[in-house]
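Customer escalation, tier 2.

The customer says the design service returned an amino acid string that "doesn't look like it belongs to this structure." They asked us to rerun it and document both sides in this ticket. The original structure tokens are below, unchanged.
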């Protein structure tokens, strides 16, 4: 009984189902589909096309099939496994579960696109990569991941503060605090623009629009992750990203909050929601003033803000 309860506290079954088990179910289904279509497929298939659309790598059908299966399971389940860890930061699990299901859809669409492009093909040079299954797979995977991610539970260990905050810290005068923090415009343009340009280059090189089905959603996720809303009141501190609660700290678990400064790339290696070490999280959008919040559970949260004194007061 105790071991079952311990597993319940550590494992989020929604994350386990969609992040870890789903790639295996999809792979099994596609292996079955490949077996059904095998009589209509050539013994060898094109696994890669060059920039002008000519086959550049030809492999046996089942060698390519097992390669795609291995890549899908290793990549998607590897990302999804973190979503199943109930005690990891909820927002991190939220994002990784969406990425995991999207990767599953991408590989599934690529797999189906290759198969459809080889059905009843006699001359291997006539084989094509059909793009619509890739776009459909990415869209379906992304939507499935978003729905499932909203069902995840927060299993972060919550301690209870036993001491009052230091007397020298500021005290709140207002009843609540709200601020929307956004990465700088140049940073958004640089990161999102680079991703879209790379997608355009890959699409142009492959003479297909399917790479945009991957890079455009990724650019959207990146842009959405560079905007967050901070809310603080007598009940605690909450941060939301893409309409989802990144973390929610109750007043009773906060030991102190102090004003500081932060450098996203210098301290956390990037902008947005970042993890620097065990229990050390950052919501860092730009260089400058910040508030560092400590909890009784041993967690540390660094938040970018234009109003550090007002936020620290809560």
């Amino acid at each position: 009984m105790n071991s079952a309860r311990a597993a319940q506290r550590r494992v989020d079954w929604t994350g386990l189902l969609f992040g870890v088990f789903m790639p295996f179910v999809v792979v099994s289904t596609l292996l079955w589909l490949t077996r059904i279509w095998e009589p209509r497929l050539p013994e060898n298939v094109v696994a890669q096309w060059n920039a002008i659309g000519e086959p550049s790598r030809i492999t046996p059908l089942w060698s390519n099939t097992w390669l795609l299966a291995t890549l899908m399971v290793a990549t998607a389940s590897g990302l999804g496994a973190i979503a199943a860890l109930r005690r990891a930061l909820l927002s991190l699990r939220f994002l990784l579960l969406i990425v995991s299901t999207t990767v599953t859809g991408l590989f599934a669409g690529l797999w189906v696109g290759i198969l459809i492009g080889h059905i009843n093909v006699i001359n291997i040079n006539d084989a094509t990569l059909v793009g619509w299954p890739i776009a459909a797979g990415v869209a379906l995977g992304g939507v499935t991941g978003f729905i499932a991610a909203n069902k995840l539970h927060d299993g972060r260990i919550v301690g209870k503060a036993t001491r009052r905050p230091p007397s020298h810290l500021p005290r709140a005068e207002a009843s609540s605090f709200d601020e929307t923090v956004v990465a700088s415009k140049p940073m958004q343009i640089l990161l999102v623009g680079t991703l879209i340009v790379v997608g355009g280059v890959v699409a142009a090189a492959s003479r297909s629009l399917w790479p945009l089905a991957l890079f455009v959603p990724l650019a959207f996720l990146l842009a959405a992750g560079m905007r967050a809303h901070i809310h603080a009141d007598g009940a605690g501190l909450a941060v939301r990203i893409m309409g989802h609660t990144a973390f929610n700290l109750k007043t009773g678990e906060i030991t102190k909050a102090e004003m500081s400064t932060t450098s996203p790339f210098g301290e956390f290696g990037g902008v947005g929601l970042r993890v620097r070490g065990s229990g050390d999280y950052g919501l860092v959008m730009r260089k400058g003033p910040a508030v560092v919040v400590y909890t009784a559970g041993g967690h540390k949260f660094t938040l970018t803000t234009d109003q550090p004194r007002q936020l620290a007061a809560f």
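Tier 2 assessment: The sequence is consistent with the input. The longest strand covers residues 254-262. Residues 1-8 have pLDDT under 50 and may be disordered. Sent an explanation to the customer and offered a walkthrough call.
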